Task: inverse folding
């Protein structure tokens, strides 16, 4: 099992918890660079695989990771087939397959430092190669999680469509991903459904909703003032009276 499969399975588990869906599909970009002939060719050899996830009440992080790894490996068999050709029209393809995607970047050259326009260069095949920070076209998907490998560790970057999601929602989702990762590392046999996604402050806010302090109706004594409606029996009677 690869680290990517583990990270993907936790992302799938979180998506399952947030949406309540037991079966869904996420997009996963994968390299289609195969064989020695393409090894040194300069260019972008990528295709996006649709990867299905299935969960039930018994799913654990271990079983989810095994499932994700197996399905990614199966998808790699057909990775050269253009995903967009699965449907003849792009709008149908985009809607039918996935609106959420996860990617992992492990560039062979250093990333662009924050605030810089170009990263450090490295020699390769007689050339000096460096990453350049260019504007990205965001909003193509509802949600994109990009895992970036850095010398300091792993960094997760979330991009999202602002017509669908807001910053507060995505921040809560990112916090949930961190909690799910911690639970998966601590005990892979933990059921996905048992992980608490809400933080301490969020739990306090939710609990406050069920108290007078959280509603702002401290002086509310109930519905005693509505006794005149005791004789109302049904909406059928109401329609007849009208």
Result:
């Amino acid at each position: 099992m690869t680290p990517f499969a583990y990270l993907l399975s936790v992302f799938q588990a979180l998506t399952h918890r947030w949406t309540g869906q037991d079966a869904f599909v996420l997009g996963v970009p994968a390299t289609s660079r195969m064989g020695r002939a393409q090894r040194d060719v300069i260019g972008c050899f990528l295709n996006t695989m649709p990867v299905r996830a299935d969960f039930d009440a018994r799913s654990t992080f271990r079983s989810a990771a095994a499932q994700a790894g197996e399905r990614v490996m199966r998808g790699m068999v057909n990775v050269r087939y253009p995903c967009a050709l699965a449907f003849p029209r792009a709008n149908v393809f985009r809607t039918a397959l996935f609106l959420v995607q996860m990617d992992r970047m492990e560039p062979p050259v250093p990333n662009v430092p924050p605030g810089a326009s170009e990263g450090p260069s490295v020699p390769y095949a007689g050339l000096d190669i460096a990453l350049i920070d260019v504007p990205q076209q965001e909003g193509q998907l509802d949600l994109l999680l990009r895992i970036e490998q850095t010398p300091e560790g792993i960094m997760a970057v979330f991009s999202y469509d602002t017509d669908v999601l807001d910053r507060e929602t995505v921040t809560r989702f990112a916090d949930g991903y961190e909690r799910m990762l911690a639970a998966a590392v601590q005990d892979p046999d933990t059921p996905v459904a048992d992980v608490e996604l809400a933080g301490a402050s969020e739990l306090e806010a939710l609990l406050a909703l069920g108290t007078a302090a959280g509603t702002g109706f401290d002086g509310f004594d109930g519905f005693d003032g509505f006794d005149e409606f005791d004789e109302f029996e049904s909406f059928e009677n109401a329609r007849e009276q009208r």
Summary: The first strand starts at residue 23 and ends at 31. The chain has a mean pLDDT of 78. Residues 3-106+139-205 form a domain with the Chloramphenicol Acetyltransferase fold (CATH 3.30.559.30).
